[in-house]
Prior knowledge:
The structure holds two protein chains of two kinds. Chain A contains ten helices and ten strands. By secondary structure, chain A is α/β, with parallel strands linked by helices. In chain A, helix 3 links the parallel strand 1 and strand 2. In chain A, helix 7 (200-210) runs antiparallel to helix 8 (273-282). Chain A is globular. The N and C termini of chain A lie far apart (47 Å). By secondary structure, chain B is an alpha+beta fold. Chain B is built from ten helices and 25 strands. Classes of the chains: A alpha/beta, B alpha+beta. Chains A and B meet through helix 1, helix 2, helix 3, helix 7 and helix 8 of A and helix 1, helix 3, helix 5, strand 2 and strand 3 of B.
Amino acid sequence: MTTVAAVSEETDSPYALSHLDALESEAVHIFREVAGEFERPVILFSGGKDSIVMLHLALKAFAPAPIPFSLLHVDTGHNFPEVLAYRDRVVAEHGLRLHVAHVQDYIDRGVLKERPDGTRNPLQTVPLTEKIQAEKFDAVFGGGRRDEEKARAKERVFSLRDEFSQWDPRRQRPELWQLYNGRHAPGEHVRVFPLSNWTELDVWQYIARENIDLPEIYYAHERPVFSRNGMWLTAGEWGGPKEGETVETRLIRYRTVGDMSCTGAVDSDATTIEKVIVEIAASRLTERGATRADDKMSEAAMEDRKREGYF
Amino acid sequence: MSTTTAAEELAGLSATTLLRFATAGSVDDGKSTLVGRLLHDSKSVLTDQLEAVEHASRSRGSAEPDLALLTDGLRAEREQGITIDVAYRYFATPRRRFILADTPGHVQYTRNMVTGASTADLAVVLVDARNGVIEQTRRHAAVAALLRVPHVVLAVNKMDLVEYKESVFAAIAEEFTAYAGHLGVPEITAIPISALAGDNVVEPSANMDWYGGPTVLEHLETVPVSHDLTSCHARLPVQYVIRPQTAEHPDYRGYAGQIAAGTFRVGESVTVLPSGRTSKIAGIDLLGQAVDVAWTPQSITLLLEDDIDISRGDLIVPSGDAPATSQDVEATVCHVADTPLTVGQRVLLKHTTRTVKAIVKEIPSRLTLDDLSQHPDPGQLVANDIGLVKVRTAEPLALDSYADSRRTGSFLLIDPADGTTLAAGMAGESFASAEDPKSLVDDEGWDF
């Protein structure tokens, strides 16, 4: 009844793709679908590894032509300087157009209020959605992966957002085969996640395979940090350390890159990509569990933020 | 074909392939437990996730961690204790990486199983050993057959509750195999398990020495993901035309797309549909690298010898192996929207990269999945219904039979007013030609 014996021989078929090749091909397909069906797509680019991999895939998808999209960065005002420098270098190198929405502008105008805990991550939603509306972007690429978080595991590759940019998980379109339905009314837009099926390890293996340059904060380095809520935060003008928190210099690296106020570093001596991969493969903590304060706020923190228009 | 790097080898993950599979089971068959155990025993549940589940379980008043909380990601799902929507899970072993479409088992969510099964290479159908093959099991088998999922695993769960008896398993396996074989499911593997106790999920069971087959994980690791492509009809739907028009590449004109089926080679004669124009493949770019041959599912850019008019929505095929084009589509559809699909309705039909206007001319029958009987002229299809439809399109389409190609034989029906996805369509015969279930059993017997 079973055909397992016959099966194992076939696994070595010359037509088998490695998992990275399969994921790459799928992501490129998604980029090209959006290029074919939308008027004004934009790539959310934070200078973090996922958005860097997205950009790399987009460059491959349209080579030798330039990417037919511009980039959008939501600057929280608390970004790592190394990451901003990386962002500007990449934009110049590939002749890209970069839109920036500044959280600080909204705080200065009194539209947004600084939170008591100092984190600006949730404050990104309003500048992001207003920029999308103002620029009339109809497809917005995000680097979100379903392995990151349980609400993200429910996210479609093409995710329709209403004119308020809201996500309604109960009213998602079924996603069948590779037939992505991107139809939307004026004012609505579609969030597109080409890395949906990638895991953190896939991203790192791909970075290694493709020799992709990253901001140096992803690799182990010495840095003055202080402990808050069990995480090592970078000391700086953004609001840390407070009284009772002491700064020490530790050998650390970052697994994710976001707002300095809520992105924690991990103790690490992984100075090369090979060492990073070994470290991740052995880690017993998820990327977000290890380094993100904002997801710990409640059991549905990510779902709630996504509903409001977060990426 | 995979490119390995020092880093991949270091992590012990070189040359792994990717298997997409879906799970289906009724509400209390233990699907969450099976998924939880696969994730847990393959060490894919990490400490902080487990802590979050333990914390949430305690705050709900249960002493034991509820593994279903790992997979129920939405507030409403946790509140109601049911799975509403498909969730995708990721785990890996040194041999393979897995994408699991975790689909809800409720009767009213047939569309979710269709969603999960549409991209799956394998479906795991769970049954409770105490209940055997029930209506819902037949429904799951029928959906897997209809969607032509290449491999089906029957996981006979809760064997611990039937004293691990071979006779119980053999009877269920025989009934299911006969039924699914009759529907044309090409390969069925039956495995007796206890998801709760861990028998034959990741580790072989010490309680069922009469069973000599693979564990669930072992089977998932060894089942083939790619088939012999030489016999497939090659198809490239054109997604996008790449024309840099730069000083460096003034004349570059490439047809970008993901190969939907088969292989393409440099030098081969090709025909472009629907125009019927022909040319020869001058070059193939595999994401920046020139290659002589490319195959599904690679995303490539095709360069042709002649400058002919080709745009998004066209289909490039080998000359001499072109599908017929037609404006009349006969297909089985699964209705996935809350509003009904009716005769006379104007819709959009999305097939590969082409979207055309269409009208529903006829709904000849509605299928009852429980007994596979056809109800003639239902007039409409409502959410989760499966039926035959005849659709007339405004422009000719080059549709393959879904039996030949899941990618070029499938389509969506879309509401032109608000973009809602109405139905998932599969062109041609709905089920594979029925095998005589009796001869299947007599000839091959059982090998466990």
